Each structure stands twice: as structure tokens, then as C-alpha cells.
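Go through this one:
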Amino acid sequence: MLHPQEILTTLDMLRHEHLDVRTVTLGINLFDCARRDPVRACAAIRRKIRDKARHLVAVCDEVGDKYGIPVVNKRIAVSPIAAAAAPLDAEGMLQVAHTLDETAEASQVDFIGGFSALVEKGIAAGDQALMKALPRALAETGRVCASVNVASTRAGINVDAVLRMAEIIKEAAALTADADGLACAKLCVFANIPQDVPFMAGAYLGVGEPDAVINVGVSGPGVVKSAVERALAANPELDLGRISELIKRTAYKVTRVGELIGREVAERLGLRFGVVDLSLAPTPNVGDSVGEIFQSLGLVSIGVPGSTAALALLNDAVKKGGAFASSNVGGLSGAFIPVSEDLNISEAARRGDLGLEKLEALTSVCSVGLDMVALPGDTSVETLAGIIADEMAIGVINKKTTACRLIPVPGKAAGDHARFGGLLGESVILPVNHAAGPNPFIRRGGLIPAPIQSLVN
């Protein structure tokens, strides 16, 4: 039961502090759609998605209207296509991508994720075909999102896959040069990818998941910022331990909202409810920024000394509050720091408070990694691969999810501006350290072995 005061504070979050259900994502298993003929495979995929998703948007709108809680995005995540369409070649995979895009549009969802491959230990024929199709698939579709898992704590880092993904990122950027490399904004390279993420571009339905499931992503950076500012206005001497407790209580309330919406949507659709992903996912709007929380805590800007400690506090408190509110917390559940999607973080990068090296340090404690980072268009494949490999190492050694969504913007240099539009925002292009020149380390390929599990310190 909710206490009346809890209801009132939640209503205030909705009206004034940008609280929303950022996404309801329907996961759909497509393994039973595998066919050797691409035409038949696409027909089976189209039928199944339409059958499962035909009422998704209407139900989300009805439930949102009932509670006065907007469901901002409705999305679909499918089984990793590299496995679900494994018999197909690259041209067949491209046909599947177009089918996913057309079906997503017909279902009126914002994005469809799962054009994905899991290659942390090796690249199979289906993976190879999907990766070959990736640049065109991302450039020629509007709603298809892709993810490739190239590393895990148990398997290590597949450096051959890392290098291949760097090549794919360059190709995808070139194909959308007139849009500042926009195709790359729909592609995430992961270590330790979760199977139930509702947020794009990393969403896919894992092998162990149900045939169809509802996962919910709730975002509340504005709520956390306002809660911290109110508390400090009332008591300026509040220490960090008590601020952490405050953020935990706020995360608890936000999680309850997400689970309420998710469970009712699932019940109305006759589907299983999966998880609430309580990730502080910002938008380019003022007041809906993770970067602003750093300033509320007393830092001049994200990126200055103390930022990593502040982010660790924030991420930990969010996870603890969510875990107390629900036994169904999953996905990533923490704080995102996407440079272009957060107006405050983008401004910190423009001023020089936040560079690529500090951003990488922050990813050791955040929920994702180097997210929506615009880089010079002439960044080499080897340099891109080195950046990805470094980020994967952080995830592998620390037993956490990390990812890269890197955008080498064709024809632009460090200090120029890239504009991606909508929720993807805009950002200054960050400089990259090219001092080392060519990178034969990455070209050696192979597997960087998994860390030893028995000696953790």
C-alpha cells in the first residue's frame, strides 16, 4: 500500500520534475522464425511481431492515461538476429533489417532492437553475415537498433570482433555522412550485455527469456536533482551519506511507478512482466539532466575532480533504492552519461571540463560506458578499436556492463559541432589522442583471456 504522502510526492515528480516511463519494451522471441529462405524468414518474422505487438501502443496509451503517467516510448526487442536468422547470408540479413523496420513502423513503435550478435568468444557464420550487413542495415532503416557483445568477464575480449566493429562503425558513419554519421547512434558495442535491457540501442531479448515479455525503463534524473536541491536548501550541512539515503528513497518511488505501469500493461496484453530498468537516462531538455545532479551535489561541472566519486555514489544509491522497491529490477539500472543526449554533459564537453580520458574514467562506475560520443571523422579504425578495447577491459575486469556508442563524424574535426536531432541531441566533437600513431597491438587480434575469478582484490 502507498502512503498518501508518497502519492503526493509522486504526483509532484510527474508534474514538475520530468518523471516519466521512458519506455515500455516488448520482447519477442524469434527463434521459431528461422528459415533458410530469406523471403519465408521475413514473412515469419513479420507475422510474429504483428501478432504480439498489435495492441502494444494502444494499451500503453490507455494505461498511461489512466494513471496520468506518460509512456514516452514504445519499443520492441527481439532475439539476436545473428542467431534467429543464422542460415541467411548478408543480403538475407539486410532483408530482415528492412522487415524489422517496416514492421516496427506498422506497429507504431519508436524503435526495434535486436539486430544483434553475441561474439565474445568467437564469430559464427550468422554473426559474420549480420556484421557484414550492419552498416547498410543501420543506414537504410530508421527504427532498427543494433548491438554486438564482444567481451565478457567469463570469456575475455574478442579483439578480432573489436577490430571488426571499429571497421563497421567507420562504414556506417560514411554511409550517413550527410547526417553527421547518424547510423552509428543506433549501434552499441558491449561487454557483459544484459539480456533484458529495455533501452535502445542495446535492447535485445536474451536466449533464456520468455516467448514474449514486457520490460520497462523508468528515468528520473530531474526527480533526483530536485530531491537533492530541496534537501540541501533545508539543511546545507547535509553530508554525502545522508544524501545517498535520500537518493535511495527517491529511486524507490520511481521504481514503484515503473512497476505499476509495466505490470498493468503486461496484464492487459496477457504477457509476462519482466523487469524495471531504473536508469537515469537524460534528455537534451533543461532539468532532465544527469550532469545537473553533479552540480546539485556541489561540483562545478561533471568532469572536474570528484566527479567519479559523485557518480559512484549516485549509481550505487539508485541501484539500492530500486532493489528495495522491487524484486524485478534488471537491465542496467543506474546512471547513463550519454554526451550528446544530456545538455549539461554536452556543455561540459564543449567547455573542456570533460574530455575523453575523464569520460572513460567515469564509465568505470556508471551504468553503460562511452555513450553518444562524437569523435573526429578522421579517427582511424585502429584508434577506434583501441578505445573500444579499453572500455571493454573496464567491463570485463570489473564484472560490469560497459558499452561504446561512438560516432566518428565524417568531414568534421575536434571542436566542431555534431547534431543528431531529437532525443539524440548534439555535441562538440571530442579530441582523440593520436600520439601513438599506428596501433599494431590491436591488429594482433585473438582473445584477451578472461580474468582469474579466484583472486579478486
